Amino acid sequence: PNQYCSQLESSKEFSKLFMKRNNIPTANFKSFTDFDSARKYLESNLLPVVVKADGLASGKGVKVCFSYDEAVEFLKFLMKDKIFSESGEKVVIEDFLEGEEASFFVFTDGKKILLLDSSQDHKRLLNNDLGPNTGGMGAYSPAPIVDLQTKENIVNEIIKPVFDGFKKDSINYTGILYIGLMIKDRKPKVVEFNCRFGDPEAQPLLYRLRSDAFELFYRTAKKDLKNYKLEWKNTYSVTVVLASKGYPSRPEIGGTISNLANFVEPGVKIFHAGTTLKDNAYHISGGRILGVTSQGKTLEDAIDLAYKAISQIDTSNLIYRTDIGSKGLLKNS
Predict the structure, then answer these.
(1) Of 62, 79, 95, which closes a domain?
(2) Helix (H) or strand (E) holding 207
(3) Would you say 133 and 91 are in contact if contact means Cβ atoms under 8 Å apart?
(4) DSSP E strands, 13-147
(5) Which of 105, 107, 125, 322 has the fewest Cβ atoms within 10 Å of its own Cβ atom?
């Protein structure tokens, strides 16, 4: 997408106004550039409430606040302390949405729309969706929360209105559109848009893709998806993110992962993010470090294989969740 279209991701206000114009289901909201006005608005708002930095903040500019004091404190961090620089000079305050999150991706060349299979991210740092928001601590695909009826509702109530809205606004959107969803009783609402592949959802999705991924990317860029056909393996895939200690606020960098260089486990692929290779040893150089990705005939098989692989990795300087995919197991049971 071009710079104008990319505001769907880079500005929460832009995307919310786009959804409002096109009757796309999302949380009620109001945006502010003045701290005192935002604080006063919170006094009359029902709790919990969601406070978001308008601009990009690496997935950390959002907080679900369960008290007035907590919301005001986060507002202060964004607007007065400027912990995310200019990204927090404007904030969006939203109603809290109940339900279960899921991720949905669309590829488009401006004419044809290709729907990827479903996936589910785990944004909170700790098990049971506790702790601060992160860039994502794991994902799996497909996500049982998106059954056939739910998928039909996503297409009719969100994807079609989004692309109709693009036409009305003379937006020639090409590329990848990520739609973060909250689903309750099979009814989806949009949490956010990204104009790129989501991390870590991309890993299990690509691991399950049978058709040629490079051809998909190339044809999308060349605006030539007419004869491209998506095909999926009849498998489940899981990614568990290993992050540095102290992540997301103060990641501890410089430590080593001693036994990673020679790691081999059939059915497992390790995607590197915050690592550097020096003297045949991997060193921690960021927040999220590795995405351990597995594939299995069932979701349970894929989960077991991912954690079996992690048990063979030196995690003394790393942290990770141990419940990635557990929501899917409950749905399947």
Answers:
(1) 95
(2) helix 202-208
(3) no
(4) 29-32, 49-53, 62-65, 91-95, 100-108, 113-115, 120-121, 124-126, 130-133, 138-141
(5) 322
- Amino acid identity, residue 164? D
Residue 184 placed within a domain? yes
Q: Note the pTM of the prediction, 2 decimals.
A: 0.90
Contact 104, 118 (CB under 8 A): yes
- The residue whose two tokens read 């479903």 is 118
Query: CA 269, CA 305: separation in Å to the nearest integer?
Result: 11
Ordered per-residue pLDDT tens for the chain, 333 residues: 788 889 999 999 999 999 999 999 999 999 999 999 999 999 988 899 999 999 988 777 889 999 999 999 999 999 998 888 888 899 999 999 999 999 999 999 999 999 999 999 999 999 999 998 898 999 999 999 999 999 999 999 999 999 999 999 888 899 999 999 999 999 999 999 999 988 899 999 999 999 999 999 999 999 999 999 999 999 999 999 999 999 998 999 999 998 888 888 999 999 999 999 988 889 999 999 999 999 999 999 999 999 999 999 999 999 999 999 999 999 877
3-state secondary structure of 202: helix
> Which residue range(s) make up the domain with 116?
100-221
Examine the domain organization and report whether 105 and 217 are in the same domain.
Answer: yes
Residue 77 within any structural domain of the chain:
yes
Among candidate residues 95, 112, 144, the one where a domain is terminated: 95
Alpha helix stretches (DSSP H) within 2-147: 7-10, 12-21, 35-43, 68-75
